[in-house]
Amino acid sequence: MADVVLGRQIQLAVDTISEAIDGADGFQNTHQPQHYESAKFSIEQVVFILEKIRIMWESILTRSTYRKSMCHVLGSVFSRITRDMLLIDDMAAEETLQLQGLIHLALENLSSLFLSLVENDDGSTKFLDHDTWTQLDGILPSLKKFRKLAELLDMSLKSITACWESGDLVTCGFTSSEVQNLIKAIFVD
After folding, report:
1. What pLDDT is stored for residue 77 in this prediction?
2. What are the ZW10 C-terminal helical domain coordinates in residue numbering (predicted)?
3. C-alpha gyration radius of the chain
4. Can you spell out the DSSP letters for 63-113?
5. 147: which residues sit within 8 A by CB, 6+ positions away?
6. Cα 153 to Cα 151: distance, rounded to the nearest angstrom
7. What is the pLDDT of residue 67?
8. What is the pLDDT of residue 129?
9. Listed residue (109, 91, 72) closest to 27, CA to CA
10. What angle do CA 135, 141, 146 make, to 5 degrees?
């Protein structure tokens, strides 16, 4: 019975956040001020909803159930935003920087939530360092892809190609068609 209720709560959270992401209109045309503001507002709504969920769930769920449930919700969030951004078929130079900024905004504003998911057995203060990001990438593969997308949006064609050839992008979860479409969106006039 409890699993059914938790499952409904997770689905409700995913649906609510999905509606907030819908307000970004696919993150299209963020180089135009009104589109950027809509996308930014959507990201801020997503962060607000996730923080409310964190506060509620962290206080009533066991640690393992909380982590599993929150990772499920976050996985769907990062997958959806990444997918929407990768579906943009033409990006102005300024737009790539705006999209990168939106990704960074989400990551920065979710730092307390991320820290609530990592193990910290020694009682020390947690902060987002390389080890923490590595641990988060392990439990949230879509986060790794989301973070890598931010890097790709500011890379040269040569650097993106090198990342693909090294296998780094595959490790982050990118498909060849996603990389090809991203390159076309950024570099083809």
Report:
1. 97
2. 42-189
3. 17
4. HHHHHHHHHHHHHHHHHHHHHHHHT-S---HHHHHHHHHHHHHHHHHTHHH
5. 103, 107, 133, 137
6. 5
7. 93
8. 81
9. 91
10. 105
Can you give the pLDDT at residue 130?
82
**CB-based contact 24:42 (threshold 8 Å):** yes
Q: Name 165's Cβ contacts closer than 8 Å, sequence gap at least 6.
A: none
Listed as ranges, residues in the chain with pLDDT below 70 are: 1, 120-127
Average pLDDT score over the chain: 92
Residue with tokens 């949006």: 153
How far apart are alpha carbons 51 and 5 in whole angstroms?
Answer: 20
Rounded to whole angstroms, how far apart are CA atoms 63 and 51? 16
Backbone angles phi, psi at 154, to 5 degrees: -120, 20
Q: Residue with structure tokens 């923490």? A: 132
Cα–Cα distances in angstroms (integers) from residue 120 to residues 58, 93, 135, in the given order: 15, 40, 11
**Contact present, 90 and 157 (Cβ < 8 Å):** no
Residue in this structure with the two tokens 């989400």, named with its chain if needed: 106
Residue 48 structure tokens:
């607000």
What's residue 151's pLDDT?
96
Q: Residue 167 has which token pair?
A: 């296998």
